[in-house]
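Input chain follows. Return structure tokens only.
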Amino acid sequence: MALPAIVLKAKSAIKKGMAVNQASKQLKNANSTAESLGGLGFTSLPPLMKGALIIGAALTFFLFISLMSFLIYPMIVVDSLLNGGNSSSSSSSLITTSSVVSCAREQIGKEYVYGAEGPDTFDCSGLVVYCYSQALGVDLPRVTHSQEGDSHFETVTSATDLSAGDLIFTGASSATHVGIYSGNLTVTHASSTANQVTEATLDDFIKGKGHVVFRHYTG
């Protein structure tokens, strides 16, 4: 046989030997994995049962994820509505306006005095000016009808669109009174009727009013 032919055959044999060696390694790895599973009794199962177990595990995982989504999403929605959450509001906005609510609630029980804006006595618009200044450093107009049109706010059509800290304006035909929405369908306001800063339900606050405007704080 010519020398080049012998060399080519030798190279071919070497390549085959390498392939066999590689296949042997892969087989050993497969056997090792099978042994690990075999410790769980998986490899001893019939093929159909193995397939059924794999499909069952996948379905169980999918159902678990679906169940968690089903349980958690309604909780988020309910929490948002009860706390005056607006789905379009950012978390930072909600945190910011909640500090206005904290300020307003700290004034509950203080005397109502027409024209007063704190820190010991308040009228309705004075309470708004005081809390927005103290909590956010925002200077709002002093009187109710000017606050209603202030550019820091936008009008929303429903109470469900309010965030805690937003403003609600009421009156017979125009804005003559204002309160701070406190979440949980409540309003904190300086009431001339109660002669103090107090908290009322949203229904009581707007009952019988011909003019009701919800204003959401936008920054």
